[in-house]
Amino acid sequence: MFTVLFMRKIYLFLLFILTVFVLKSQTSDIIPSTFAVANASVADNKYYSAFQNPASGATLNGTQVGIQYENKYIINALAKKSIYFSTSTSLINIGIAATYSGYELHNELLTGISISKNFSNIFQLGVQYNYYSVYLAEANKRFASFLPQIGIIVSVSPAVKIGFSTFNPGQQKIQLKYSNKQIPTIFSLGTNWNVSENLDFLFQTDKNISGNYRVAGGFEYEVKEFLSLKIGAYQAEYLIPTVGIGLKLKTFDFYLNTELHPILGLTTFAAIKYTISKD
To answer: In order of start, what are the domains of the chain with their CATH numbers?
Structure first.
């Protein structure tokens, strides 16, 4: 019995150390990754990227639902499970998303609802209201806070878009049992350049007010109408290469991305999107 309790404490301690390390090497540990190469999605409106830029849903037509799973460094306690829903109306587009990570003693839940609008394909504007909560087994309680998110995507030419998003601009905090937990405040700026009919170049830089910059970029190439390949990298203390593949089959889309951290190892991302209807 003593050995089991001791090993559990060692596991939790190592998990805590690794989580701190991960937090230092990523833009934010609470925001899930997206379909885009190197997670450079702030100027990409091909997909609905709820927590990256709420304006990304403004040009989507119809109703979609999707799920995704991100396994960070093959550690279940760091994995993120996400679900999203988006639909278009004659006036605005609406999106709902949620992501969960953690284990029974400590877990985090981030949910959001957004409205976005496309202004004559010149620019898209999105506003999202998020609810972020943390469960601590020690207190047997969930602590939470509301925070806003604002994003815009501007078409500066038929081939070039610029995107900007701010997550938690008010620097909201969560009041825990004995201390405050600072929720990351992140500003993202990027571009999406349609190099040719089948080739896009994405670039993005993120700044966490309480952390370092993150710079990301890469190419997405549509080999066939149903098949796309992605290759890129991002710099966040270490240079981390990423590759991915996308597959479109009528109403279903499948995505698989991987990245390799030189110390922490492999992260995998898988997603399925289902198009319920098209306008």
So the answer is: 2-277 (2.40.160.60)
